[in-house]
Records
---
Amino acid sequence: MASLWIASLVLCSVWGARGQTERCSGYEATNVLEADSYLTADLTVIGNCSSHSSDIEKLRLLVEYQTDSRLHVLITDTDDQVFQVQEHILPRPRSQNSTLGTSGLRFSFTQSPFSFSVTRASTGDILFDTADAPLIFETQYIRLRTRLPSNPNIYGLGEHSDDFRLPTSNYTRTLWNSEAPFIPYKQNLYGSHPVYFDHRGESGTHGVFLLSSNGMDVKLGTSDQGQQYLEYNVIGGVFDFYFLAGPSPAEVSKQYAQVVGLPALVPYWALGFHQCKYGYKSIDDVRQVVDNYAAAGIPLETMWGDIDYMSDHRDFTTNESAYPLEKVRQLVQTLHNNGQHYVQILDPGIHRDGGYPTYTRGAEKGVFLKAADGSFYRGIQWPGVVVWPDWFHPNTQDWWTDEIKRFYNADSGVNVDGLWVDMNEASNMCDNTDCSTSQSARTWATHNGIEIKRRSPNPVPFLGVPERDLFNPLYRIQNRWGDISRKTLWTNITNADGTHQYDTHNFYGTRMAAATRNALLSRDSTARPFVLTRSTFAGVGRVAAHWFGDNASQWDHYRVTIRQLLSFAALHAVPFVGSDVCGFNKNATEKMCARWALLGAFQPFYRNHADVTANRQEFYLWPLVTQAAKKAIDTRYKLLDYMYTSLWKASADGTPNASPLWFFYPSDSNTFGIQNQWMLGDALLVSPVVDDDSQSVNLYLPDDIWYDFWTFEQKAGGGRTHRLDGVQWDEIPVHIRGGTVIAMRTESANTTAQLRAKNFRIIVAPGKDGTAKGGLYLDDGASLDVGVNKSEIVFTWDGQSFTANGTFGFATDVQVERVVILGGEGEHARPVKDAISSNE
Ligand SMILES: *[C@@H]1O[C@H](CO)[C@@H](O)[C@H](O)[C@H]1NC(C)=O
Ligand SMILES: *[C@@H]1O[C@H](CO)[C@@H](O)[C@H](O)[C@H]1NC(C)=O
Ligand SMILES: *[C@@H]1O[C@H](CO)[C@@H](O)[C@H](O)[C@H]1NC(C)=O
Ligand SMILES: *[C@@H]1O[C@H](CO)[C@@H](O)[C@H](O)[C@H]1NC(C)=O
Ligand SMILES: *[C@@H]1O[C@H](CO)[C@@H](O)[C@H](O)[C@H]1NC(C)=O
Ligand SMILES: *[C@@H]1O[C@H](CO)[C@@H](O)[C@H](O)[C@H]1NC(C)=O
Ligand SMILES: *[C@@H]1O[C@H](CO)[C@@H](O)[C@H](O)[C@H]1NC(C)=O
Ligand SMILES: *[C@@H]1O[C@H](CO)[C@@H](O)[C@H](O)[C@H]1NC(C)=O
Ligand SMILES: *[C@@H]1O[C@H](CO)[C@@H](O)[C@H](O)[C@H]1NC(C)=O
Ligand SMILES: CC(=O)N[C@H]1CO[C@H](CO)[C@@H](O)[C@@H]1O
């Protein structure tokens, strides 16, 4: 075994000892201990790197064959001082004690200077190899470089608005959650997901997840020697890698979801159509919009309240003139009576005003982050001067839950169906790091801080190395705002558990989303919560859905939504995502909004939302958009159970609910760069018109059998690009992949509640071998725990007969009206007895 573990042992030379050279040579591995399923070693620095801070001289290496498809490589300081993401924030998967003999991945290393590689056992393909540059492990800068093949297919490292297949020349992905209006290219956006997929065609796909919340630049480039590389430059934390073997792309997605946590299933109603706008002047205005949708005959499922509803933009208040509580309650009641829903926004910044009960209750419980002098640390957000919840304080969850239960009390407050957390990067409107705008300085002077005692240092591990420069680290990540503390919370702030914002910044927003989900569960322990968050971190899918932030009403942002969908759903285990349909900033135009209404209908989260400075863009405002939206929603609703089934599958085992074509055709290199088409579930290929104001689309159909979703006409893909002209403004090209079965409702409805009473029609699309397979998941769509009251049905068509098999625990009166077999001499329907309530 030893010879396999140490594939390339190089005995260290004399110059390796510490102090004998000033050269930065990395580390030397000693005391190597091997067992069947793990390896440990000590790493000691050789030479002097200290490029941006001090070298950590002694490190520990732990390698675990955790499962046959997951290899864990952890490099930490021996003192356990360096920050590591708290176990309760991201619970680590335990090793299942796989062994070298059975693992799909193989670890080997060189002793001095230390480097390691990971190979695919079945092919010998080197997936990761750090030999080209010494490991650097300093207190505020860690670096590791791996070789990549030339012209690699690398995806992930979100959140970004760049090409789905990442550029690989002189390209930097900075991960540092930030306010990002207009979602600019090549910059850090609202979320951080330090995972990439490396797709190598026929030889397989693997994933590499660096479990780190520290700010980082991940660089893709070519060295002077012409070697393609990917390099991590991180301003703290440890190297905690999970290598995911795949080998199929969807298997990597599942393996990743097992590490960061399976996403939560959303309630069924969340799949309906949502409307929002920043700038609805009053509750009467909102009611009018609801009525207008009904009058136009466009099904509206959920109305949203942006910050307009608040008094002085304070959480848990209503503007008593424009949004009087009684009228808000009446509207919510009306919506509920119609089977519709209502969601409101919350921001993390809590207005610092002694007369504001949310603030005073929080202050009494000490739940806010503290400045150096012990007063509550202040910043600027919509309400003006604010303080910020410290999600690590032991009282914060209780305080937040209590505020949510008070204000969203069904009997006396706003009976929301879900909550939306925004600005949670956190976005601080101070335009410089010292936040000394005259406005803030003035207001601060009038509200003296409550005196809080400073905390004593905490002797627990992983709090972060002391004595770091938490404000201006020497290695400057390419944060879009410059200094890492700019436009957010100061990174030198200490959290209640003794860690610092410097290390925990990237999951501040995810913590807020998690606390909000917990609060909703405390408000109603049986209902499935719905939380939408702007800021995200690895694993956020466990607690929340995500929209792509403040984009604009422009064609390039319409296109960006596709690659953002692909990234979140297929690579980041966040299935319930979507854009602000018709764009947030700037004015939408009729044709673009019509196209976007159709595009959004085929993405998981479907919400029209515009900024206060933009014109209104409700679907009923233009004839073309009305027509397109009606058709879009009609079709989406018929397909809603198909979409719900794929979301359930994602929550059950991490299977992506939306994915790029190469997930299904991994050896077809034509698909690797496609980012304007997507597979929705495993059966539908969506190929929208993407060019500005165009009626033509070039769509790629892999070599397979396809059926036009709208006409059922069979089409040989041929592995080539097909041009469609004359695509009308209410049309979107969609194809059914041969070999699949789709359960559709026979008709649409005005609400998802009504939809649930409609019967099914089953579409069978035989593949090349004449067979087809698909599934349908049914439950009440609302309960957190449905227990046995669910149906997991598998449909099979063997070319002769149709079978519905599985479990049928969900009681329903809904029938399957017919089964339609596509192909042959055209569509022919077969009568079925009842494919969803019995095992025939
Ligand atoms: C390493 O180099 C840095 C700067 O070049 C220097 O300040 C430091 O003292 C050196 N450390 C050792 C242990 O030689
Ligand atoms: C794996 O091995 C470790 C140490 O030998 C042991 O503590 C652990 O329970 C094992 N885990 C499983 C899943 O067998
Ligand atoms: C690499 O990118 C940076 C930042 O975009 C740019 O300033 C620099 O000129 C580029 N270098 C090369 C060699 O293209
Ligand atoms: C209430 O809403 C009105 C209308 O938008 C606005 O003018 C006013 O400033 C708001 N009042 C408060 C306290 O937010
Ligand atoms: C953070 O650093 C700034 C600038 O040096 C300083 O003014 C502030 O007091 C520090 N805050 C904390 C909490 O240490
Ligand atoms: C949007 O349209 C309004 C009026 O229709 C106009 O005042 C405003 O300048 C436009 N905004 C942009 C960004 O073009
Ligand atoms: C929706 O409601 C309208 C008006 O009440 C009605 O005319 C229409 O048929 C309904 N549509 C569906 C699909 O039920
Ligand atoms: C399942 O349904 C039965 C019958 O409606 C009900 O009594 C039971 O409580 C349900 N179980 C769960 C876990 O919801
Ligand atoms: C039907 O499903 C059950 C388990 O749900 C399985 O044991 C059985 O083999 C399946 N039958 C067919 C014909 O697929
Ligand atoms: C991703 C993207 O399209 N970003 C653009 C958003 O809009 C701003 C302003 O119009 C552009 O500068 C960005 O390039």
---
Amino acid sequence: MPVWTSTRDPRHHATFAEAAARSMAPGGGLYVPASLPRLDADALLPMPFVDRSVRILQSLLDDVDPDQVEQATRSALDFPVPLVRVTDRIDALELFHGPTLAFKDFGARFLARILAAFGGERERLVLTATSGDTGAAVAHAFWRLPGFRVVVLYPKGRISPLQEKQFCTLGDNVRTYAVDGSFDDCQMMVKACFDDAELRAKHGLVSANSIHVARLVAQTTYYWEAAARRPDAVVAVPSGNFGNVCAGIIARRQGAPIKNLVVATNANSTVPDYLDGAPYAPRESVTTPANAMDVGAPSNFERIRWLFADDRDAMRRELRWGSLSNEGIATELRATWATERYLLDPHGAVAAAILRHVLEDGEHGVFLATAHPAKFLEVVEATVGFRPSIPTSLAERADLPVLSEPLAANARSLFSAI
Ligand SMILES: *Cc1c(COP(=O)(O)O)cnc(C)c1O
């Protein structure tokens, strides 16, 4: 029975609903499952994706009403998850067919639906800062969901025009603020709200960031899909805050037949450097074309450490790893289009290139394609020389007016805005 505990205090215990409501454990730890039930792979693998996902999430949320878990899962994961051949030895698991065209839809949609199922009398405020993908996924997931308001902060002029259209045109219960500052300013302002106990209670603040347990558990489902379609493959994960790969480690420990997981980063190589033997050294992030992975101090690394009992040698046995330069991203995108006619996005390109590098003779590989190439229009066009076609869900929003309001980059202006 997976009671939830804290990375910083093994004596702390919480039910899933408590962990989901708190988001962070007391003292700043991250919630982790105290034990992981081994699942029956022979029974699960032949099942269709959504039916299997219901079973997996019911086992991880075994203190929640199974009907609630089933409804939340079916309503959250209502889009396809295709496995697409790229070369004879490598497939892409495309995680970008949800409403905002990136894998964050899995976690954000399940989070919204399970919190809605838990109910509560009063309206709650989902407050988040974004550098692009997270804000879109969270805004869409909670859009028009009764009982919730959403406020998203983003740095003015520093997200792509198409990204802005994607979530700043929704309206209704979603409000967006273009902050006159950086992404770090936005995060600081959001954190100031969460640090204020009075504000937290007054607005029923809900955090939707990447350390949230509901996002974590939902992301285990597609690792099972990869394993069902290609048993014993080596699975490469484009990583930034390392929430995604944590879910992969959990799926593998629960019995998903995955030969190895590959941690793939862009030039922000904090974790690969550590796995190479350097001391763990979080640092400032550097800008890359795979910008959703521009993280120098990954917030989920604490969870990975806990999952491996802080044993670097154990990590080195269970994981493979690598980092890719900006030039490497462009080369991979161009070459994969030229030779295989498969159009990568910059994040998938990181995973594909590193996967090819670490794959040994006789092995099969799967990489997670985390975003649709049209989300990174400018980079992709500059690299392959043509404009990827824009899916209708995104194209439809391109002509709508941006509803964002301006906001000064300080906590007080946010306090009065919400
Ligand atoms: C957020 C994101 C990542 C990184 O995922 P983490 O869970 O933070 O490691 C990779 N690719 C895309 C497209 C993303 O939006």
